[in-house]
Amino acid sequence: MGLKKVTIYIWAALIFWPVLSWGQKYYFRHFKVEDGLSHNTVMSSLQDSKGFMWFGTKNGLNRFDGYTFKLFQKDPSDPRSLLGSYVQCLHEYGPMWVGTDNGLFKYDEELENFELLRPTEGLALADIENDGEGNLWFIAANQLHRYHTESGAIHKFPTPNNMEYVDITLLQDGRLLITSSDALYLYQKADDSFQELDLEVKSSAERPFRINRSFSLDPTTILLGTRNHGVIAYDLENARTWDFLPTQDPVYVRDITRRGDELWIASESGLHIYNLQDQSYTNPRKNYNDPYALSDNAIYTLALDQEGGVWAGSYFGGVNYYPKPYTPFRKFFPNVSENSISGNAVREIHSDQYGSIWIGTEDGGLNKYDPDREVFTHYTSVDRGGTLSHFNIHAVLPVGDKLWVGMFEHGLDILDIPTGRVVGHYNVDDESELLSNFVYHLYQTRSGEMYVVTTRGIQTYDPVQDKFLLVDAFPQNMAYTCLIEDDAGKIWAGSYWDGLYYYDPKTGEKGSFLQDGEDGECISHNQINGIFEDSSKNLWVSTEHGLNLYDKAKGTFRKFTMEDGFPSNVFYAFIEDDEHQLWISTANGLVVYDPESGDKKIYTQANGLLTNQFNYCSAHKDRTGRMYFGSVNGLISFDPRDFVVNSYKPPIYITGIQINNRPVPINSGGSPLAKSVTFTEKIELKPRESSFSLDFSALSYTTPEMTEYWYQLGGLNEEWVPLEKNHKVFFTELPAGDYNFKVKSVNNSGIWSEEASALQIKVLPTFWKSNLAYGLYIGLIGFLFYLGLRFYHQRIKSRNKELLRELGIKKEKEVFQAKIEFFTNVSHEIRTPLTLIKSPLEKMLKKADLKSELGENLSIMDKNTSRLLDLVNQLLDFRKTELEDINLSFVKLNISDLVRNTSTRFSPSVKDKKLDLEISQPEKDIYAFVDAEAIKKILSNLISNAIKYAENSVGISLEKNEDFFELQVRNDGPLIPAHLAGKIFEPFYRVPGSENQKQTGTGIGLSLAHSLTELHHGSLRLDTSSSHLNTFVLRLPLRQEREFPLYLSKEAETEKVVERQALELAESANQPAILLVEDNEDLLDFIAKDLVEDYQVFKATSAEAAREFLQQEKIQLVVSDIMMSGMDGFALCKHIKTSLESSHIPVILLTAKSALQSKIEGLASGADAYIEKPFSMEHLKAQIANLLANRRYILEHFSSSPLAHIRSIAHTEVDENFIRKLDETMSEHISDPELNVETLAEIMHMSRSTLYRKIKEMSDLSPNELINIARLKKAAELLKKGDYKIYEIAEMVGYNSQTSFGRNFQKQFNMTPSEYVKS
User: Fold this and answer.
1) Share of the chain above pLDDT 90, in %
2) Sign (positive/negative) of CA torsion 602, 604, 609, 615?
3) CA-CA distance, 1152 to 1150, in Å (whole number)?
4) CATH class, 652-769 region
């Protein structure tokens, strides 16, 4: 810079100093320890070539990406950490160089660690610079060093006595300037020496000359920042110095940088900003009442970023950032230390005719703002020392030289603008007829008519009468919020809760719009916040829930909400700019909206707003086009024409990775990162590392909060996925595969960044899905194939052998099955002849003399007949178990008693063989759920075998534990070999040996016992532990899954009692008719011949023939076999019991099926009794007599007992239904003397003969006899109640004569009605 130009700078600064100090307002953002900074004392700063900001502090180094600080601090355990705590200076030359209090370090950005330049260890660094020759110059411990970065050579320059090196500056022409505390030295490359420059600076003991910093302003001018003399300029061409930044007080300069035409000087007294173009100057300082001022006055370091923002590091206040003002919002908020606006909650804003702007606040009174002088004049309430009626201002309107001021519940004040005095006041108590003291809004139409909007209605002001007149077009006693006149002269008014109203003064037309949930084209909400008409005559309405555009042609509204991209559903005020865009304040930011294109842009605190929440009715545009919006935290103003599009395209980097929510270390054991993720192109993750997150940042610091991001993960989704303002993305359990991650961003101006370098991500599969695993699989498959092939050949050989063996087994099974089939068929055929032998034999034994030869022969025949029957039964039971066709019924049985009884049955055999029988049982009887028939067979076989093969003794012991009982049967016969312990339970197997072969047997007893035991879910085995005893161990569970809650008592004794009673009853029978049904004619004839002496017997050889007898004869009992061709006995029984004509007839079933399940099946079909073949004829006779006698007893009881109900004679469900219907019919007509069988038959829809026969067979009474008994039983019931006289009861039950009634009652019940009443 020439001398002439410098001289102009100086004179301009001196002349304009007082005025220029009021220059541009600067707003700073603050970053402190609370925001992640390692220390609030910031000593150095710079932006590296990639765009990251670096800050050196007293507690390490910080890298900032716009969102987070990454810290590099001293770690004594890590030699590659930053071993110095005080970071004094930073410089980027190739890598970044970090000067600390413990040496100079080179930063490795890929590994994110540091390498100490060993010669500097323990030395404190003051400054670092580089030249154009590959040298790094630095001051360490007050000594100048030169380090060649390629060769590693270090040269130390000697330090003259009393010299203090402070700074190194690379001049714009490439020369190197070394600055000491009081001198300048130019480096002479030719002879590797330094040339001292002459400085002429006045100094004194009070103001000694000390240099802190040097700065190359242009190729010929050097600026020196001093401790006591501010900024000194030195002209290299003319060797002249002068004061560049004259101030009245000394300025202690710490750093200097240049931002365009602005020179920024960091000092102990804040920042000094000097504009080189217009010579304006300002001195931003710390202000405790200004949150946007510097956080500290001691500024130590300055850094300029690539966007034009300035970073100022302070000693106590961290980092202050001044971004490039793309959106220069001017902020006005209360500040007690300087002239400022008086309130936070800013309401209406208007300009007067004098150019002043009037601002009403809800908490600080009225403000007049002079935009030229930037001065506020305050008007407050009387109680606060002012002149206004109240400090809560809602409405402001300049009219000529008067200002109308509407207040909260304090009426209207009229202020004289030139004098500032209140010249008038209106309220509801004076003669002005003001409706309400709460004046919400004031509006003047184009014709000059004044509208006053209050909480109780809308009025106009009449200046002639000085009164307020009610506007009848709008409803009264309603709170209104706003009012405008549209281009057509129509008045629109918004209410607080009741929607939108309009009124046309020309035509008198009026109406309203209300929110209707069912109408999609209605207004969005009934609380109206503002009404605005734009230059295109569109009417806009803001509400508490949505923005509305009125369609004048249709009378409908189009709604806009957050779903349309707006930041909030609450809209406040409007302004239209010169480009016909709408600026709309909301509860969450300021929106600029283009109605034509629909484009919108949102501004928030990140863009420079005081707050995101604005206030009602608070927007104004002055005559210059500058806009004002009031918020709850103050006022902002701006000129949209000053806004600049942020066209900076920041680089975008991946800045961090976390796996399973944990940061990933670099180049450490097990880490997938070999270098910083920022420089990583490909990363390989293990299966357990498939859940991870990535951090990224577009390195733009102006409004990072407004930057929006998109990412793409190729291999998973080729679409770009929006993240909005999130700068982190999470992936959870990403499937194994190869992926390509990309990210991009867009700033608040809609400018897209460049895509970040792609990060290739490979997620390894789990081991069993890896290539190695697949190789092992293939190898294993090949090996298995070889083994399989080998096994196949061996298998073929063994299979052929197995086939031969199976053929032999199959042949054996066929022989075995043929044997079983033969025995089974023979057994079935034998049972019926056995019955014919056993029954006559029993009769003969009764009549014969047992001591005679005939009696002895007959006894031998009976004994062998029983043995043959037992063998037949075993064969049949064994066959059932083989076919798994046996169903056991588990009932509760006394096992102890059963063991005793079974042992007793074999007492004769024990005596015959002179054996000792020992039985051991617990004192308390053992009960278990077993099948009675099956357990008897098991015990009989075990005890029978023990006795058969015993020589001297047989032992039986019974024990019980918690879930099982165990029976042991021992004998001292020939020992069964241990290897045959399982073989002996096979069918038809007998232990070889002469002793065993002497004993007769079939070889199926143990097999049958073993099968029945398994059906009980138990076990039967041979215990071979004894050396001299054969011990069979039976183990059965006490409970079963399917149990029948029955308890079987001693059957034999019961049967005897039944037989004895039945015989006695049979002697008095009167030849009842009995039907015998049996397909074996011999057995049929035998039974009939034996019964014909006592009964009238009918014979049938099939169920079909039996049904014909039932229709033709009066049968009183049926005895039927079960196993018959055609319809079996079960089906016949079910037919008898379900037919109305025969359901009362008792049925006895005869069968060879002896299992309990068969008995249950028979009883379920309706049988009254069940007798097994072969049977005793005496038993059959007793059963028949018993059933008939029971029937007779029931009928006699019914007839003779006054209170016995007719339903007692029913035995089946069919009978019960018939009797119930008959009883109901007789009860309904009991008072009818004419009730008879014809009437009953007609009512019950039966023929007379059928009804007669059914009643006769069931009750042994004629229908008329039954009707008479029913009358008498009803009379007995009424007599017992005692509510009626005897003659009244006689009439009620159908008797015409009391005498006849008394005679019949005595005949039937053996007592007169009077006697019955007294009984």
Assistant:
1) 53
2) positive
3) 7
4) mainly beta
